[in-house]
């Protein structure tokens, strides 16, 4: 079985490129307010009396005001945005979140809800002096129903910790992403994070069963039901899924965990051109059916740059494109047979030029690590623009050559990769340094092209701070109007994550 594929994965122990890269550069990013010319909204400034009030609720240890301690909470993961907050609060309970928000709302103090601060659109850090409310200490697992698979936990639980926990009970988390070691489930829910297996397990609007959130005025909204079916009026949880901290702070989540697959296999293949990636995807869907759990692609530069910048092994040699195909099933023999037929067929047809297939967890991890590290590889040296768009699959890769041509030698690298099974491509553009000239070559060009191709300007990372002025490329005025109405209703003073998601009216 699978004899015709070469088993040439070299095992390397997993190391944390994530942190390594994040702290590689000690140069502080420019303040977002200056870089993007943002006018401060009319909020109050934090006074000593406000800090004393927060200390009275949280104690001194959970109110950070020391400049060095506050700094990391002001800078986003890609080191593009930098806020000017002077206060970070670390609540431990929903009651504390409620008291903080009720106070801030009354005093017109703006806040920035924050999870693991891995967001890629600048939504997780303040722009001016918004008070950071970080959920990291709300990290308790509350219940796990092994029959239904419903996990109930606090919003600050780190995704990887949850996955490790439920695996001990024969379940997995329904989402997985490269930032799993740092991102929190509350952040995942608030961004409606997609990730590597959305193709199989669906998005969070499907798997989140219920949640608890605190509105701007401190009201606790209890929608923490764990039922699969609950058609009792408006489906309010959906308002908080993907609203990026602008409508409320998510404090607890009930989420459906699928069964841990008994058999899992991962293939990494070299492909001649983009058309063949699409053909292979069609074939994988038809041959693998219900066991297909991920179908990812990367172009040559995405992989070679990751290999070079992060010193990771490429399990196969150089190819124009790469496809990563994973199966999750319940019967090794049955799954192996399907996979074997698929591989033999597509090696014969030439769609797969070379490849490696493994069921060994350590080797699978090595391949996944390469894929998950692409995001970090482009942070090494210079400055990176990251775009996350959905495009109908036929035109999925069109924008990459367009941008290469448009930018010429102004860009040191332009590459595309992502969740092709979901029509979601990530385009990374590395430049020696951030300049207004380069920005004007990329934006709004990229959004115009996406719009012409009937795509979305944000597939999974959200709108955050970086994209409100482009949201109209993907949202009709009527829909934007309703978004504004909801914001007005739920946060009339606009204290929750200002400067994010909704564009300025003027
Ligand atoms: P943060 O970054 O802290 O916050 C993100 C947004 O949510 C902000 O607007 C913040 O205000 C808000 N927020 C956070 N917590 C709460 C809360 N409890 N209540 C209300 N609002 C809150 N994203 C994907 O979708 N798919 C991927 O495959 C993917 N891969 C990634 C890989 C890497 C290496 C990195 C760095 C990021 C990746 N991301 C991906 C983006 C990011 O990790 C996700 O968006 C993640 O869900 C953010 O979670 P977080 O806890 O870090 O939230
Ligand atoms: C991924 O799929 C992430 O790896 C990150 O969504 C994308 O960095 C990026 O452009
Ligand atoms: Zn992604």
From TrEMBL:
First-listed, main subcellular location of the protein, grouped into a coarse class: other
Domain of life: Eukaryota
Catalytic activities: (R)-malate + A = oxaloacetate + AH2
Sections of the chain in a coiled coil: none
Cofactor: FAD
EC number: 1.1.99.39
GO molecular function, one term: FAD binding
Key words, A-Z: FAD, Flavoprotein, Oxidoreductase, Peroxisome
Oxidoreductase among keywords: yes
InterPro entries: FAD-bd_oxidored_4_C, FAD-bd_PCMH, FAD-bd_PCMH-like_sf, FAD-bd_PCMH_sub1, FAD-bd_PCMH_sub2, FAD-linked_Oxase-like_C, FAD-oxidored/transferase_4, Oxid_FAD_bind_N
Cellular compartments per GO CC: mitochondrion; peroxisome
Residues annotated as domain FAD-binding PCMH-type: 81-260
Pfam family membership, one: FAD-oxidase_C
Subcellular location: Peroxisome
Function: Catalyzes the oxidation of D-2-hydroxyglutarate (D-2-HG) to alpha-ketoglutarate. Also catalyzes the oxidation of other D-2-hydroxyacids, such as D-malate (D-MAL) and D-lactate (D-LAC). Exhibits high activities towards D-2-HG and D-MAL but a very weak activity towards D-LAC.
Subunit structure: Homodimer.
Family: Belongs to the FAD-binding oxidoreductase/transferase type 4 family.
Protein name: D-2-hydroxyglutarate dehydrogenase, mitochondrial
């Amino acid at each position: 079985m699978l004899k015709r594929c070469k088993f040439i994965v070299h095992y390397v122990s997993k190391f944390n490129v994530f942190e390594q890269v994040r702290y590689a550069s000690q140069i502080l990013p420019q303040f977002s307010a200056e870089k993007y010319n943002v006018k401060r909204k009319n909020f109050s400034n934090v006074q000593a009396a406000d800090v004393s009030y927060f200390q009275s609720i949280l104690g001194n240890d959970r109110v950070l005001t020391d400049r060095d301690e506050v700094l990391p909470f002001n800078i986003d993961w890609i080191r593009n945005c930098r806020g000017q907050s002077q206060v970070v609060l670390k609540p431990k309970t929903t009651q504390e979140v409620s008291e903080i928000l009720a106070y801030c709302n009354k005093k017109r103090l703006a806040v920035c809800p924050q999870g693991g601060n891995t967001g890629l659109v600048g939504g997780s850090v303040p722009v001016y002096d918004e008070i950071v409310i970080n959920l990291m200490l709300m990290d308790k697992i509350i219940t796990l129903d092994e029959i239904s698979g419903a996990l109930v936990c606090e919003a600050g639980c780190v995704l990887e910790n949850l996955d490790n926990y439920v695996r001990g009970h024969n379940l997995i988390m329904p989402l997985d992403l490269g930032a799993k070691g740092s991102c929190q489930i509350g952040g995942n829910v608030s961004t409606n994070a997609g990730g590597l297996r959305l193709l199989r397990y669906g998005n969070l609007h499907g798997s989140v069963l219920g949640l608890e959130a605190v509105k701007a005025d401190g009201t606790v909204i209890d929608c923490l039901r764990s039922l699969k079916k609950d058609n009792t009026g408006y489906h309010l949880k959906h308002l908080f899924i993907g609203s990026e901290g602008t409508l409320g702070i998510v404090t607890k989540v009930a989420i459906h965990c699928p069964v841990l697959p008994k058999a899992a296999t991962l293939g990494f293949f070299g492909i001649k051109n983009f058309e063949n990636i699409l053909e292979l995807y069609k074939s994988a869907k038809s041959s693998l059916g219900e066991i297909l759990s991920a179908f990812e692609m990367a172009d040559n530069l995405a992989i070679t740059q990751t290999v070079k910048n992060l010193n990771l092994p490429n399990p196969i040699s150089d190819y124009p494109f790469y496809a990563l195909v994973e199966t999750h099933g319940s019967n090794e023999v049955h799954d192996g047979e399907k996979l074997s037929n698929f591989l033999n067929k597509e090696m014969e047809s030439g769609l797969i030029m070379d490849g490696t297939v493994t069921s060994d967890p350590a080797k699978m991890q090595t391949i996944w690590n390469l894929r998950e590290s692409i995001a970090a590889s482009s942070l090494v040296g210079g400055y990176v623009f990251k775009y996350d768009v959905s495009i109908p699959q036929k035109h999925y890769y069109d924008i990459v050559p367009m941008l290469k041509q448009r930018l010429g030698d102004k860009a040191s690298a332009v590459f595309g990769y992502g969740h092709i099974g979901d029509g979601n491509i990530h385009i990374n553009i590395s430049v020696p340094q951030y300049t207004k000239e380069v920005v004007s070559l990329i934006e709004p060009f990229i959004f115009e092209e996406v719009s012409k191709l009937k795509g979305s300007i944000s597939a999974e990372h959200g709108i955050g701070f970086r994209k409100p002025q482009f949201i109209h490329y993907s949202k009709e005025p009527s829909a934007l109007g309703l978004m504004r109405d909801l914001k007005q209703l739920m946060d009339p003073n606009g204290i929750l994550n200002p400067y994010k998601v909704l564009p300025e009216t003027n």
